[in-house]
């Protein structure tokens, strides 16, 4: 599903994805319309603009992620690291792309997210982490260390790799474990840390001095 209040942007995305293996089954001009369309015909993934009328991308992403079986959500914006993006990731967005991302990279990002991989470039991840960390209090390290202390040694190793932007396959190769085992560890890490995406884990690792 494509969600953007600019018909030209939606048209451009449709053209870019036209030659891929993905089928665009719906388009919406705002978050409210997207939720209504999804309730009638669920989709696997939503490409979501952030700044829209009626219901913006942050609020819509939050509503999607409250569903029992939510779709993956990749947010789109013209800015590479602003408060909107931080907030979108905080409510559970699965990835982040600039609107001028090359078509091939958009397809790669969609494939990554649908297979449980990150869809954030290391440079963008670093910028987002810095923005969040700069706004935190002096006790951030203590809180982070306490949270990380809940992880097993193996989960901690996986979390460190994850915070560096490694894919599940790369983590498996680094730590000599299968991809299904990596996915299981990541699920446990998210649950123990109260995280909904990899950026949130990376922020905690950064606060604890481990990334």
Supply the key terms.
single chain; 211 residues; alpha/beta; Rossmann fold; Arc Repressor Mutant, subunit A; 5-stranded parallel β-sheet; 5 strands; 55% helix; globular
What would your notes on this structure say?
- This protein has helices at 7-17, 31-40, 57-65, 83-90, 103-114, 122-134, 140-148, 153-163, 168-175, 179-193, 198-207, and strands spanning 2-3, 27-28, 45-49, 72-77, 95-98.
- The protein is an alpha/beta fold and 211 residues long.
- It has 2 domains: 2-119, Response regulator (Rossmann fold), CATH 3.40.50; 138-207, Arc Repressor Mutant, subunit A.
- Strands 2-1-3-4-5 form a 5-stranded parallel sheet, with helices on both faces.
- α6 packs across α11 and α9 crosses α10 (179-193).
- The longest helix has 15 residues, at 179-193.
- The termini are far apart.
- The modification 4-aspartylphosphate is found at residue 49.
- GO terms for molecular function: DNA binding.
- It comes from Gordonia malaquae NBRC 108250.
- Residues 144-209 form the HTH luxR-type domain.
Note the overall shape: globular
The share of residues in helices is 40-55%
Percent range for β-strand residues: 5-15%
Average of pLDDT? 84
Number of domains: 2
Enumerate how many helices there are, as a single number.
Answer: 11
| Low-confidence sequence ranges | none
Helices and strands, in N-to-C order?
Answer: EHEHEHEHEHHHHHHH
Please identify the top-level CATH class of the largest domain: Alpha Beta
CATH overall fold name of the largest domain:
Rossmann fold
Helix/strand class: alpha/beta
CATH superfamily of the largest domain: Response regulator
Radius of gyration using CA atoms only? 17 Å
User: How many beta-strand elements?
Assistant: 5
Distance between the termini: 35 Å
Quick one: biggest sheet? 5 strands, parallel
Strand order of the largest sheet: 2-1-3-4-5
């Amino acid at each position: 599903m494509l969600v953007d209040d600019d018909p030209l942007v939606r048209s451009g995305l449709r053209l870019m994805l036209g030659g891929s293996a993905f089928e665009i089954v719906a388009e919406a001009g705002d978050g409210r319309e997207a939720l209504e369309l999804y309730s009638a015909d669920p989709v696997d993934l939503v490409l979501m603009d952030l700044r829209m009328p009626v219901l913006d991308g942050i609020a819509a992403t939050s509503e999607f992620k409250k569903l029992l079986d939510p779709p993956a959500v990749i947010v789109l914006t013209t800015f590479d690291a602003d408060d909107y993006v931080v907030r979108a990731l905080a409510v559970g967005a699965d990835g982040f792309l600039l609107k001028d991302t090359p078509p091939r990279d958009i397809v790669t990002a969609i494939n990554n997210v649908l297979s449980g991989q990150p869809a954030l470039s290391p440079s963008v991840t670093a910028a987002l982490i810095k923005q969040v960390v700069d706004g935190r209090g002096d006790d951030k390290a203590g809180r982070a260390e306490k949270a990380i202390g809940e992880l097993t040694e193996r989960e901690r190793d996986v979390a460190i790799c994850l915070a560096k932007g490694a894919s599940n396959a790369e983590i498996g190769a680094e730590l000599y474990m299968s991809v299904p085992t990596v996915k299981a560890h990541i699920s446990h890490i998210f649950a123990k840390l109260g995280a909904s995406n990899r950026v949130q884990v990376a922020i905690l690792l950064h606060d604890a001095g481990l990334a």
